[in-house]
Amino acid sequence: MSELPRTLKIATVWLLLGALLFLGVQGWKRQQQATQFSAAGGVIEIRRGADGHYHWPGTINGVAVDFLVDTGATSTAMPARLARSLGLESVGQVRSQTAGGPVTGQVVRVDVELEGGVQVRQLRVVALEGLGDRPLLGMDVLGRLHWRQAGGVLTIDLR
Q1: CA 129 → CA 64, 78, 82, 149, distances in Å?
Q2: β pairing state of 92-98 and 101-114
Q3: pLDDT averaged over 10-residue windows placed end to end, the chain, 159 residues
Q4: Nearest CA among 89, 113, 94, 115 for reference residue 104
């Protein structure tokens, strides 16, 4: 019976250490996400995420989304599921060549706002099935901006 309190103490110490470790990792993750994007003085810096992509927070027709910056994409694309949930109507159909092969998508028009002050009104976007859960920001938007990529940082100069 005298071992029960000692065992309980050891178990309590391990539980506390585990909880502290968990909270520390969560805090570190939150800090990493917060430092991936910064905008000041007309210059936007986006640090490459742990997944190897640049993530640019923004909105499509006022709905918050996390764009994946895709310098290899000619145009901006969004998941068809998102287009349906926003009630977007197709203004045409297009056949696109993607990394996964040729696909057919619906063309929709949207208002895009990106953190840092970039806005594009009535942008033609391709809504694609099977795109995943994030829209891709293509060269139709990026080509309008002055940007460079070096050392895992994408810098956009709006000045």
Answers
A1: 20, 9, 10, 30
A2: antiparallel
A3: 76 91 84 73 91 93 95 92 94 83 91 96 93 92 95 93
A4: 94
